[in-house]
């Protein structure tokens, strides 16, 4: 890699590596959703069990956020991310051979802990490579593209491979959903090798100016890593911003988990499709959500950069606006869709809105020292993931509680969307309160320039 020494454009290669890493993390978190109909039939489970299967991952995922983030600050993202993806591939292979539902829960929990080694570490790495002039756009390109690719594999590719493998084709002796899961194991291994070769933890590794030194000099002078971290954790505004994050997390746990199933029910009831046809059609609708995530989030992220740098508009104000839109969108989902086109348009826009969570990471990196970014983002994500996992675990029960027999797909799933509305409303309040702290940080940084 000596030919890349002092090449400032290498930061875009780092971005690509982070996108690939996050795609593997997002693939593993939703690996069961696109094949849920097969699991329901083989293991004789229902909505409650699917909710628990999803939440088992995210409880462990929440626990892993802070340790992996702190290790990234200390050892560097290249090592942490590569090891995490390698362990993720191992967990994927174990899931392919899972003997039943209870074994799958244990494997999903292990997947969650090792899967935490992609998102926060990648966020920390990118915050070290890109300044606040580009950070909002870059973090949203990372999350939108990386997450979208992983979800596309989960929601569309895995069901299609599973459908192909039902006809007698096998892969290492496995067929159906097990074969598609094992195939994704090899995809994950390839990503791990690419990240180990191409990832660099900090610009200083290539002899480039350190973003950490540039921005930390403005934020805190002569303060150790431990002192800067403890100072941030003692700041009550840090915890308020954490609750601005959790509304995104809850929506991200509920919508991708239930949208393919909700859309399949929509197609079955409105267009009379069979179970298999509706499952594939539901995956296609989930792909519309992914398109919104990939295309919309970078544009909104760039807008937030422009508004912050040119007009000092706090990111937290923009975050509050997105939470308001999410709340309204979930309310619409709880009602009958007037047409498939309107359904697709709504899903596309929601795909962008609920994935604007990197704005919270950008705000944290700009209010508190960048050098503590891994630990702080890990803490924010831990709280959000615990809340999100609890919401996902409870979502199946909410669906049953608020459902009305033979009343249609919208009544069957409206309790899930009510749950998302509650937590998004909490985030609206937290975001509006956090505006004060971000404005203070903007004034302090302006005076230091």
Concise overview:
Helices cover 81% and strands 0% of the residues.
SS summary, helix count = 17
Domains (count): 1
Silhouette: globular
- For CATH, the homologous superfamily is named as MFS general substrate transporter like domains
- Can you tell me the CATH topology? Growth Hormone, Chain: A
CATH class: Mainly Alpha
Mean pLDDT across the residues is 82
Estimated helix fraction: over 70%
The total of beta strands comes to 0
Main β-sheet: number of strands, strand sense, barrel status?
A: none
CATH architecture: Up-down Bundle
User: Termini distance?
Assistant: 35 Å
The class by helix and strand makeup works out as: mainly alpha
Could you tell me the strand content as a percent range? under 5%
Q: Regions with pLDDT < 50 over 5+ consecutive residues?
A: none
Order of helices and strands: HHHHHHHHHHHHHHHHH
What is the alpha-carbon Rg in Å? 21 Å
Membrane topology: Multi-pass membrane protein
Domain Major facilitator superfamily (MFS) profile: 1-439
Pfam families: MFS_1
GO molecular function: glucose 6-phosphate:phosphate antiporter activity
Structure report:
It is a multi-pass membrane protein. This is MFS transporter. The protein has 449 residues and is an all-alpha fold. It has a single domain (11-198, 228-448), classed as Up-down Bundle (Growth Hormone, Chain: A), CATH 1.20.1250. Helices cover 81% and strands 0% of the residues. The chain has 17 helices and no strands. It has helices at 10-29, 36-43, 47-75, 77-96, 101-115, 119-129, 132-165, 176-198, 211-219, 225-234, 236-271, 275-311, 315-333, 340-353, 358-367, 373-402, 409-448.
């Amino acid at each position: 890699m000596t030919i890349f020494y002092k090449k400032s454009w290498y930061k875009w290669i780092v971005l690509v590596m982070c996108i690939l890493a996050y795609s593997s993390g997002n693939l593993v978190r939703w690996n069961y959703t696109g094949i849920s109909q097969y699991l329901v039939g083989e293991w004789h489970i229902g909505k409650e069990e699917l909710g628990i299967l999803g939440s088992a991952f995210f409880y462990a995922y929440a626990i892993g956020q802070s340790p992996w983030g702190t290790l990234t600050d200390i050892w560097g993202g290249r090592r942490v991310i590569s090891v995490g993806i390698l362990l993720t591939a191992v967990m994927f292979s174990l899931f392919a051979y899972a003997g039943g539902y209870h074994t799958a829960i244990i494997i999903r929990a292990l997947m969650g802990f090792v899967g935490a080694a992609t998102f926060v570490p990648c966020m920390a790495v990118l915050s070290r490579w890109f300044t606040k002039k580009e950070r909002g756009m870059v973090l949203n390109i990372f999350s939108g593209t990386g997450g979208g690719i992983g979800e596309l594999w989960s929601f569309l590719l895995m069901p299609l491979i599973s459908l192909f493998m039902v006809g007698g084709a096998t892969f290492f002796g496995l067929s159906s959903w097990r074969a598609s899961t094992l195939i994704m194991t090899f995809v994950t291994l390839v990503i791990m090798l690419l990240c180990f070769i191409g990832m660099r933890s900090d610009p200083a590794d290539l002899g480039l100016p350190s973003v950490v030194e540039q921005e930390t000099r403005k934020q805190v002078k002569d303060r150790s890593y431990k002192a800067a971290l403890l100072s941030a954790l003692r700041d009550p505004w840090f915890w308020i911003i954490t609750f601005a994050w959790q509304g995104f997390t809850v929506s991200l746990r509920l919508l991708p988990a239930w949208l393919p199933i909700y859309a399949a029910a929509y197609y079955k009831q409105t267009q009379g499709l069979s179970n298999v046809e509706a499952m594939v059609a539901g995956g296609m609708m989930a792909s519309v959500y992914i398109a919104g995530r990939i295309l919309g989030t970078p544009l909104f992220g760039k807008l937030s950069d422009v508004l912050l740098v040119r007009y000092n508009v706090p990111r937290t104000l923009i975050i509050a606006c997105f939470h308001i839109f999410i709340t309204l969108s979930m309310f619409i989902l709880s009602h009958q869709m007037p047409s498939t086109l309107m359904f697709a348009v709504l899903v596309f826009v929601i795909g962008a809105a609920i994935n604007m969570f990197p704005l919270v990471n950008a705000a944290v990196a700009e209010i508190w020292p960048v050098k503590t970014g891994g630990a702080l983002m890990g803490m924010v994500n831990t709280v959000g993931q615990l809340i999100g996992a609890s919401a996902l675990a409870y979502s199946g029960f909410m669906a049953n509680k608020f459902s009305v027999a033979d009343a249609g797909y919208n009544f069957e799933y409206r309790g899930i969307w009510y749950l998302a509305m509650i937590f998004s409303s909490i985030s609206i309040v937290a975001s509006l309160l956090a505006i004060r702290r971000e404005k203070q940080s903007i004034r302090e940084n302006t005076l230091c320039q």
